[in-house]
Amino acid sequence: AIEKLSEDEISDIEEIRLRANKPVMIYLKNEDYFLGKKGCLEKIPTEGIYINAMDINKSLQVMCDFSLYSIEEELKQCFLTIKGGHRVGIVGRAVIEKENIKTIKDISGLNIRIAKEVIGCGTKLVKELYSDGVKHTLIASPPNCGKTTLLRDIVRNLSTGILESGIYGYKVGVVDERSEIAGCYLGIPQRDVGLRTDVLDACPKAQGIMLMLRSMSPEIIAVDEIGSNDDADAILNAIYSGVKVIATVHGKDIDEILKKPGVKCLIENNAFERIVFLSRKNGPGTIEEIINI
Fold first, then answer.
1. pLDDT digits over 149-203, tens only?
2. Which residues of the chain register pLDDT less than 70?
3. Domain ends where: 66, 82, 113?
4. pLDDT tens digits for range 142-162
């Protein structure tokens, strides 16, 4: 039924949510709708298409090419990345072994997050902030405000270069713990992250930063959604090694981001030279404020 939606509606879809014994929900333009039986968006749930656990299982089988074994590790993390860089969140019954999640069974819900690549959304900011050299930068916003999309385009610009602005291209190492920056599928980035970018996919940030430093000699390291003390230690290590760091964090203002112990440590140690705050005021990626540290 989704293919019956208009081209504009399809292009605006942000999430598709499948829940057992509930109607299919579509999220776009910051609102949710039920997918109607006639292929239209509805606000009345009784008009929606209802699905069951078997439908969800069939959908997951298609996403993993009919091999659940091949996504065993992803199931432990409750998400997988499919071709095109789209990310699928998974919920159900967690099977615990030695205090760790062994797998997810009886899957009852999928959240298909449509990857949005907005080429050029970070070009103006890159020219403004980095024409005289890359600065250690923290990008902060509440969820769904476009910080990962902005980070990706910043990486693309710095990696490929903007010759007219005197940016000739840097070696960039992306540590993509949640597979949201590069959207790797079978280890290959599905998003454009630039010509000189190396991606370490599905690796914890703190470990990945250290591996990048040892193995790929990056000039810049980019990471998404920092917050822990381990993240802070690894980022400080990178900075002390002469590598520039560009990172994102959840938080609407300085008070909120300082509640995260790792971020508080980094700011107290003057790790970042710029902090960029985003909102959705004029759509995702709206720059509210840039703080020079």
1. 999 999 999 999 999 999 999 999 999 998 899 999 889 999 999 999 999 998 9
2. none
3. 113
4. 988 999 999 999 999 999 999
Domain boundary residue among 87, 113, 139?
113
Euclidean distance between CA atoms 161 and 163, whole angstroms? 6
Please check whether residues 198 and 255 belong to one and the same domain.
yes
Residue 133 sits in a domain whose CATH number is 3.40.50.300
Residue type for 189, please? P
**Using a CB cutoff of 8 Å and minimum separation of 24, what contacts does 111-114 make?**
111/15, 111/16, 111/17, 111/18, 112/15, 112/16, 112/17, 112/18, 112/86, 112/87, 112/88, 113/14, 113/15, 113/86, 113/87, 113/88, 113/89, 114/13, 114/14, 114/15, 114/16, 114/86
Domain membership of residue 180 as a residue range:
123-292
